[in-house]
Every structure is written in structure tokens, then in C-alpha cells.
Task: structure prediction
Amino acid sequence: MKKPFVIRYKGGEERFNLKDIENQGYKVKFRDFAENILSLSTPGGKLALNTHDDKLEAVTVECYPPKDIEIVVYKGSWGEAKLRNHDTIVIPPNFDHEAENISDLPVSLLISNFIVEQD
Result:
């Protein structure tokens, strides 16, 4: 069964590309982009448990000032994943997830939403 996965930051300006998602077996089409600058803006800040049935999310975590440290933990019934600055977690449709700022820095979530296309 597919589950959320992390795309580790490789350096440079690019955080991820469509091939990173397609290589996990998803055919997707871009839907929209959003940002959440409030939920994890303080140490211990949390994003409440949520599930989306209408999209695949690719969430890139960014802290300021930029530091190469673990800054966010995502959890769900599928397990958990710790993300460093500039990492991206991909959350397929119908997977529950919540997030917590585990650093002492403000964290923003950059959210690219995709429609999963059926073959």
C-alpha cells in the first residue's frame, strides 16, 4: 500500500519535481499552491489532524533563519516522518496527517496540491 513519503532536499533552489512524485507511482496534474505561515510559526506549534480525499499534497517545510536541522514531524496512522529544512513530504489522498514544529524557529509550509489522474 502506498503511503506518505519524503523527498529530501538535494541543494540548490529546487525542492522537488514531478518525477519525484511519478517515481512513486502517481500520475498527477497541478491543481493549486498555498502557504501556511501561522500553524507552525512558533516552537511546538501544531497543524491539526486532517485528511483530504480530493488531492495529493506536496508540503515543503521552510524555517527562518535557514538551518540544516530537523524542524517538523508529520504523523498519522501510517507512521511518522521527520523533515529537515527544505524537505518535502508527499501525502496521497485519504491519508490522515498532523504536523508539529519540533524546532525553536518559525516554520512555514509551502503546499503544492495535485489531482491524481487515473489511468
Q: What stands out?
A: The chain has a mean pLDDT of 97. Helices lie at 18-22.
